[in-house]
Amino acid sequence: MPLACRVPTLCPRLYVNMHPLLSRLRYASVGVAVLLSGCNMEVLAPKGDIGAHEKSLILIALGLMAIVAIPVIAMTLWFPWRYRSGNKKATYAPNWSHSTKIELVVWTIPAIIIVILAAITWTSTHALDPYKPLQSDAKPVTVQVVSLDWKWLFVYPEYGVASVNELAFPVDRPVNFEITSDSVMNAFFIPQLGSQIYAMAGMETKLHLIAREPGSYEGLSSNFSGEGFSDMHFKAIATSEDGFKDWIAQAKAAPVALDGDSFKALAQPSQKVPVSYYGQVTPGLFASVVNKHMGDMPHDAASHGEMPMDSHHDMPMDMQHHEGGDALPSDGISSITTPTQAEK
To answer: Please, is 286 exposed, middle or buried when counting C-beta atoms within 10 Å of its C-beta (0-12, 13-18, 19+)?
Structure first.
C-alpha cells in the first residue's frame, strides 16, 4: 500500500472502515488503564530484607510457571492454525492416541518443576521463618502489636509509650514484633517489608522485619474482620536514629496514659480512627490482653517478665482456681505450669 494511503485525508474510505476498530481499541485501552490504576505493586517494590527475599521467590515461581504456561498458550494458538480444514499439508490421523515423546515431555517437565519448587520451598520456609530473629549487629526494637476493632495499637515496652495506627522504627535495625488480638482474628501486614502473620486472641505470634530505606510504608489488615475492616490501615515509618528518637519524644509528650480504663475505652469498636499517642503505658498491658482471652488453658505469661494488670479481675472465673479447686496464689500466674515446664 502506498504511503499516501495510510493518511486518512488521502484515503478516506480506508479511514472510514478502520474508524470503528480504532475507537474500540481506544476505549479498551482506557478501560485497561482504569483497571490497572487500582493495582498495588508494593509487594514487588520491597524496602527490607524479608520483602526482597519474598520478591525473589515470587519471580522464581512465576518463571517456573511460565515454562509450562507459555508453550501451552503458544500451542493453543498454533494447533488450530496448523490443523485447520484448509491446510492439506497437515497429517490427518483420526485414530491417533499415543506418542511416547509427548508423554515424556508432558510428565518430565512438570516433575522437574515440582522438585525445584520443593527444594525452594524447604529452604525458604526455614530461612524466612517469621519467628526467626534477624542477624544484625544493631540492637532490635521491640514492638507489641494489639489488633482492635478496627485499629492497631502499638506498644513500645522499652520506652513506655504507645501509638494508634502509626508505627515508627529506625532504618537498619531489626524490629521484633509481638502480636496478639483483643477481638477477632486479623492479619498484620506491611507489604513492602514482607511477611504477613495473624493476630489471634489469647495467642502471641511473632514477626521479625527490617527496613533498609527510610520512608512511610502502608500497613494493613489482610484478613476480613468485620464492618470497619476496609479502613483498618496504619503508617509504618522507617526513619533515622535521630528521627526515631524525635518520634519517641513526641509520643512521650502526649498527656494521655494507657492503663486498664483507657484501654477498655480504646478497645470499643470504632472506624477511621486518627493517629494518637500515649505518653505512658501501664507495664504488663500486652500480657494482660493475651491472658484475658486464654480461658482455662495453661499459659506462659510469666515468660514475658511482666505482670498482668488486675489479673483477678480480668481473668474469667474459671481461671481463679485449678481443676482440683485450689486457689491460685496472689500473683495469679506463678503456679500455672508453662509449656516449657511441662516439657521438663
So the answer is: buried
Grid coordinates given for 118: 520443593
Residues 6+ apart with CB under 8 A from 53: 124, 127, 128, 194
Phi-psi region of 84 (alpha: psi -120 to 50; beta: other; left: phi over 0): beta
Strand ranges inside the chain, DSSP E: 141-148, 151-156, 161-164, 166-170, 175-181, 186-189, 196-199, 205-209, 215-221, 233-239, 257-258, 276-278, 280-281
| Structure-block grid coordinates of residue 252 | 512521650
Burial of 314 (0-12, 13-18, 19+ CB in 10 A): middle
Neighbour-count burial for 69-89, b at 16+ CB within 10 Å, e otherwise: eeeeeeeeeeeeeeeeeeeee
User: Grid cell 515446664 — which residue?
Assistant: 341
Tell me the CA distances in angstroms from 140 to 171, 172, 210, 252, 301, one per residue in order: 11, 9, 9, 20, 22
Distance (Å, rounded) from C-alpha 259 to C-alpha 215? 31
What are the structural domains, with CATH classification, of the chain?
Answer: 43-73+102-128 (no CATH), 141-282 (2.60.40.420), 287-335 (no CATH)
Cell of 339: 509449656
Assess contact for 291 and 338: CB atoms under 8 A.
Answer: no
Q: What is the rounded end-to-end Cα distance, in angstroms, of the chain? A: 88
pLDDT tens for 64-84 read 999 989 999 999 999 999 988
Q: Is 92 helix (H, G, I), strand (E, B) or coil?
A: coil
Residue at grid coordinates 514477626: 207
Residue 1 has pLDDT above 90, yes or no: no
Tens-place pLDDT, residues 46-59 = 999 999 999 999 99
For residues 319-344, average pLDDT: 38
Q: Which residues are bridge partners to 227 per DSSP?
A: none
Question: For residues 274 and 256, what is the distance between their CA atoms, to the nearest angstrom?
Answer: 15
DSSP 48: B
